[in-house]
Amino acid sequence: MRSMPPSKEGRQPLSDTKNAPEMVNITINGIQHEAVAGERVIIAAEKAGEYIPRFCHHPKLDPVGKCRQCLVEVEGPRGKQLLPSCAIYVTDGMVIDTQSDVVKKAQKGVLEYLLINHPLDCPVCDKAGECPLQDQTMTHGPGESRFVEAKRKFKKPIPVSDLVLLDRERCILCDRCVRVADQIAGDPLITFNERGNQTQILTFPNEPFASYFSGNTVQVCPVGALTSTDYRFRARPWDLEITPTVSLRDTVHSNAEINTSRGRVIRVYGATNDHVNDGWLSDKDRFSFGAINSDERVTTPLRKTGTGFEEITWADAIDTVSARLGAMIGTEVGSIGGANNTNEEAYALSKFMRTVIGSPHVDAQLGDGFEPQLAAAVIPRAKIDDIDAATTILVWGPDLKERLPVLYLRVRKAVRNGANLVVVAPTRTGLDAIATHVIRYRAGSGQDVIRKLANADKSMTAILETLAEGPVVTLFGRTSIAEDPRLAESVAAYGRTLDGAKLMPLLQRANVFGALDMGLAPNLLPGRISTTDTDASSHIEETWGPLPDALGRDTAAMLSGAVSGDIRALILVGADPVRDFPDPQAAEKALEEAEFVVAIDAFVTDSSRHADIILPAALWSEVEGTVTNLEGRVQVVGAALPPKGQARSVIGMLNDIATSMGAELTSFDVSVVSKEIATVAPAYQGITRDGIVFTSSGAGIVVPSQEAEIIVEMAPRYASMAPDAVPTEASGSAVIVPAQGTQPLGYIPTDQAVPMVTDRYTLHYAPAMYDDGVITRHAPSIADLVRDPTVGLNPRDASILAVANGSIVVVDGSVELPVRIDEAVPEGSVVLPFNHAATKGLQAVPAVTVEPIRDES
Amino acid sequence: MSWLSDLLGPLKGFLVPLRQIRKGPVTRKYPQVKRVKPQRFHGRHTLNRYPNGMEKCIGCELCAGVCPANCIYVRGKDNPPDNPVSPGERWGFVYEINMLRCIFCAMCVEACPTQAITMTHLFEMSVTNRDDAIYTRTELLVDRDGTPNYPPHEDSPLTNLEELRKGDGWMRATSPSGRREYEGIVAWTPSARTGELPAERGQSSGTPQVSEDADG
Ligand code: SF4
Ligand code: SF4
Ligand code: SF4
Ligand code: FES
After folding, report:
1. Which amino acids bring their CB within 6 angstroms of ligand 4?
2. Which of A373, A561, A693, A697 has its CA 20 to 30 A from that of A329?
3. What is the mean pLDDT of the segment spanning B112-139?
C-alpha cells in the first residue's frame, strides 16, 4: 500500500534518545567546531554561529540544492570547491570556508541572477518586510543590477486554491512549496511547469491546490510568490504585534503566533515546537480566526424575551443568574461544556459547580468522546515524540487528516522515516495511502476485529507480524460518533498488550484534555483524581471545602434529567449540544424543558438560542491561560486582544456570580488561579502558567502520568527566575516532583465486550475538517470550504437499492442526500458527514434505514 | 592709539543700525505679504496623481513605517480590476496624517516609492479642534486635474493656493540615491499637479563621473 518515497535522511535522532549522536570535528573559517555526523553543513555552520544565506534550504524538508545561494568553499582532494552547503553533509575533518572572496562573489552573483526576473514590487508585496529575498539582498547581495532588458511577465496573481494566491513573477523556484505539499502534507498538487526562463509553479489543470495544509506553503515561501487571500494587503509586517500562543482548533495544540494590527487579529502563523507541531499548522488552525472578528458575536449579556433577545447589563445578568441558581438545590443544576476554555477557566467552572452550587453534574464532553478517566489518565501514555520513536503505529480512531491534521503530519513523518503503520477504520482515511496495512470493518463490528487480532486469526497474520515489531504506539479513539464509545477502550486495552506499548487517546475538542484534568467530568476531580478516591478528594476538600456526595451525571443523563425534571437548570459553557450531541432532538427537547438555561457563549447557536440568559464569552486570542493537549502537555495560550465588546473570560463571570451568591471562588488573576491549580490538583503539582513561561523554553510541560518525575528543559538565563520549579544548578533544568501522598489516577483500559450491530445498514457518521461548527461557520475564509454532503454506499448495496452515483436516498426517514458509490465503504455501512448543515438533526444511532427515492413519473 | 579706539568703539556699534536704516524694514505685513520660501521648504503634504488622473499612492505603508512621529495611518486594498484607482494591484484606501504630531521631517516623502506623498510650501494649518488636524484623503489628495484641496479654512487669508502648488518634487528631482553621476537626470514621475519638473541642479559639485567609492 505504501506509496511514499522514504525520506532521504532517514530517521532523525531524537533529542531524548539515550545514545548520543556521533560527533565529528570540522573547521569553519579556520576555527575548529564539533558537529553531528551526517548533519547538513548549513545547519552545522549555523550552530557554530556562521549564517549562510539560503532560500531553498528548510530544516524540515529534504535538501534539493536548487537556489545555489548557500555556496561555500570546501577543501577536497582537488583543491577548494564551491558546493551548496545545504546539500552536503559534514564529515570528519571537513574544512569549510564561508567567507572567502570566491564565496562572496558567488553569493552576490546568485542573488543578482535571482533578481533578474524578479518584479521588485516590494511596495505592494505582502512579504516585504519579512522577506528573506529582501533581507539577503541587503546582507549578501550586489546592491545593483546590470540587467536592463525586459523582465519576464506573468499574469498576477492567480488563485491556486480558495486560500492561496500565486504570483509567478516573484517566484525564485526554490521548490519549498512543492516539497511541503509533497513531503510534509502528502498532497503533491503543485509542481514546476515549463522550462528555462518560463519555469513556473502551477497546479495541475482543473485540480485546485485543495490541501488541508496549503497555508504552510505560504509561510515557507521565501518570497511573496504564495500569499494567502485573507491576509492580502491587510497590513504590513511592521504593523503586526505578535502574541505567542497555541491553536485550539483541535487537541494537538500546535504552536502558533497571533498577529494583530490595530486591535484586530489579521493573521495566524505557525510557530515551531518540535515536540508538538514542527512549525506546521492546518488551514483550519490558520484561517479560522475570522470568527473572532465576526459581527455576529454576542457582545453584551442577553435575556430571552417573548420574541428574541434583549440586551441587558452585566450587573442585571449576574443578579438574574445568581438569584435563579441560588433558589435551586445544588444537584438540580448541571453544567455542560468547558472544553473550549483554558485550564484555569475549566478549573473555575469545576470549582464553581462543586462548591458554590454544590452539584456534581459537570461534563466537558458532549457524548462524543469516551470514558473520561480513560482519556485523562490512561497508562502508559504516549507523547507525540513517541510517534517518531515507534517502530509500529496503530491508528484506530477518527480520521487524523480530517480531525487532528497536525498529528496526521506527525504520523506521516514517522512513516516516511521508516515506521510501520496499521490503520483500522470503517472507511477510507487520510492515512490509508501510506499505511503498511489497512483494516476496514463494517461500522458497528469493531469488536470483531479486536477479537480476531487478539486470537491471532489467520486473516490477520501479516498484520500481527507488523504489530509484533515494537515499540508500538496505539492512537485510539472513536472512528465515528455513531460508534459505541466503549470500543475505544477495547482498542486501548488491545494496544496495551503490544510490545513496548504506549497509548494516545484521541479526543478532538479544543482543550477537552485540560477540561477533564480540571475535573469537568462526572467521575473526575481536578488533577486526575477519581471522585471515588476518598484519600485524594480529601486533599482537594482541604482547599475547596466539602464536595457534593451525589453521583455526577454525564451530558446524556443531564439532558434526560432536564426532561424528567430532576435537573432544573443547565449551564452551557461554549457547548452546542443541539449540534454536537449524538441525539440532537433529545438535546433540543431538554433545553426547551429545562426551567432555566444559561449559555456562556460567543454566538447565538442552535443551543444557546434556548437560553434564558446568554453571557458573552471571550474567545481564543482574547483569554490567556494554560491548556493541555492530547499527550498531556501543558502550554500557554496568549491574549492578543481584549475580549470583543463586553465579553469576558469565564473566570471573571463565575467569580461575579459566586460573589453575588455570597460565596468566594477564585482570584480573577490567571496566574493566581494557575498557582491554585498547582497546589490543589495533584497531577498538576508545580505546573503553573508562570513556570511554563519561564522554564520550558516555550516547549510546555508534559503532566507526569504516574511516573516519578519529569525534567523540564530550561533556558539557562531563566533558571533563577523560575518561581515554582526547583532548579538544579548544574544542568539548568528543573525537577518537578509529583504531589506526595495523593497519587493521580492511572487508568488501565480493559476489554469492554461491545456488542456487534447486526442491522441491515450501520452508520459511520464522522465530521470532515471543514464542518458546520460554529467557528468554521463564522470564519469567512473557510466557511465555504465545507464539502458537498453525500451518502457513501458500497457498490453492492447501491445495486441492491438500485441507485446510481448522485441518486437521492433517504437516510433514517429524514435526511435526503445524493449517493456516492465508494469501494472503501464496507458492505452494509452508510457513510454520512456529521456536523454538516445537511445532516442537521439526524440522530447518531448505530443502525439506520436507507431508502431510494423513486422518480414517480 | 588704543585710547582712541576705546573711545570710538561704542560709537562703532551705532554704525550697524545706521547702515540698516538705508535698507528699509525687514518685517512684513504677514499674512497679506508672505515671504518666498526656500525651494525645499517642508510644509503641508499633498497626495499626488499621475497626469492621467490615477492616484500615485499604492497603500504600501512605507511612509507610515518610516514616520518618526508615527502620525500616518494607511491601509491598502485590492484595486478594482475594472476601474483601478492606481496602477498595479494595490491602492491606499485609507490615508491619514495627524498634523498635530507631524514634525515636517519629510521622511515620508523620501520613503515613498511612487512619489505619491510630497510636501508643499503651505504651513498655515491652525485648527479649532483636534479632529480637524487629522488630514484624510479628502484633504490631501489632489483633484484629477492636479488642483490641491485646502480645507479646513478655505476662506482664510492664511491659506494660499499658490503655496500649495509649490514644492512638489523638489526634494528628489534628481538621483534617488543622491549620487553625483545622476546630476541633472530627472528621476521623478510627472504628476498631474506640476507635470515633469526640471531636474534640480547643484546637488554635487564638479563634473559628473562614476565615483570610485560608490557601493556596488
Ligand atoms: S512559490 Fe515560493 S516556495 Fe514555491 S518555488 Fe516559488 S519561491 Fe519557492
Ligand atoms: S513629515 Fe515626518 S513627521 Fe510628518 S508625516 Fe512625514 S515622516 Fe511623519
Ligand atoms: S504615500 Fe507613498 S509611501 Fe505612503 S502608502 Fe502611499 S505609496 Fe506608500
Ligand atoms: S539553500 Fe542551498 S541551494 Fe538553496
Report:
1. A 54-57, 65-70, 84, 86-87
2. A373
3. 89
Confidence at A289, pLDDT banded by 50, 70, 90: very high
For residues A292-316, give the mean pLDDT.
95
User: Which residues are within 8 A (CB) of B137 and not within 5 positions of it... i.e. 6 or more apart?
Assistant: B47, B92, B94, B95, B96
Closest CA relative to residue A660, chosen from A158, A201, A322:
A322
Q: What is the atom index within ligand 1 of the atom nearest the CA of A55?
A: 8
What local confidence, expressed as pLDDT, does residue A734 receive? Answer: 45
For ligand 1, say whether the CB of A160 is within 6 Å of any of its atoms: no
CB A580 within 8 A of CB A366: yes
Taking only the tens place, the pLDDT of each residue in B159-202 is 777 788 777 766 555 555 556 677 777 777 888 877 887 776 66
For residue range A130-185, list pLDDT tens digits in order.
999 999 999 999 878 888 899 999 998 999 999 999 999 999 999 999 999 999 99
In a domain, B179, yes or no: no
Of B47, B96, B112, the one to substitute when testing ligand 3's pocket (max ligand atoms within 8 A of C-beta) is B112
Assembly ipTM: 0.83
Given an 8 Å threshold on Cβ–Cβ distance, is B60 in contact with A123? yes
Look up the CATH number of the domain holding residue B129: 3.30.70.3270
What is the residue range of B100's domain?
Answer: 45-171
pLDDT at B175: 56
Tell me, yes or no, whether B128 lies in a domain: yes
Ligand 4 atom nearest A53 alpha carbon? 1
User: Please, what are the domains in chain A?
Assistant: 302-368+513-736 (3.40.50.740), 374-508 (3.40.228.10), 761-852 (2.40.40.20)
Q: Are B76 and A239 an interchain contact pair (Cβ–Cβ within 8 Å)? A: no
Compute the average pLDDT of residues B114-125: 89
d(CA B97, ligand 2 centre) in Å: 8
Separation in Å, CA A615 to CA A302, A311, A648, A779, B187? 7, 10, 8, 21, 61
Mean pLDDT to the nearest integer, A794-803? 95
Distance CA A693, CA A670 (A): 13
Which residues is A267 bridged to in the sheet?
A: A259
Ligand nearest to the CA of A175: 1
Q: Is the Cβ pair B76, A144 closer than 8 Å? A: no
Residue B207 has pLDDT above 70, yes or no: no
C-alpha cell at A3: 506509496
Cβ pair B44, B164 in contact under 8 A: yes
Residue A482 pLDDT more than 80? yes
CB contact under 8 A, A123 and B216: no
pLDDT digit string, tens, across residues A203-248: 998 888 999 999 999 999 999 999 999 999 999 999 999 999 999 9
Nearest to A386 by CA among A497, A512, A470: A470
Q: Which three cell numbers stand for residue B62?
A: 512605507
Q: How far apart are CA A341 and CA A346, in angstroms?
A: 6
DSSP for B4-39 reads HHHHHHHHHHHHHHHHHHHH------TTTS-PPPPT
Residue B162 lies inside a defined structural domain of this protein: yes
- Chain A residues touching B65 at Cβ < 8 A: 129, 236, 238
Q: Do A15 and A697 form a contact (C-beta atoms < 8 A)?
A: no
Asked whether the beta carbons of residue B88 and residue A232 sit closer than 8 angstroms, the reply is no
What's the domain count of chain B? 1
Q: DSSP string covering A562-597, please?
A: HHHTS--EEEEES--HHHHSS-HHHHHHHHHHSSEE
- Strand boundaries in A121-220, DSSP class E: 158-159, 164-166, 190-193, 200-203
Chain A, chain B: beta-carbon pairs less than 8 Å apart: 40
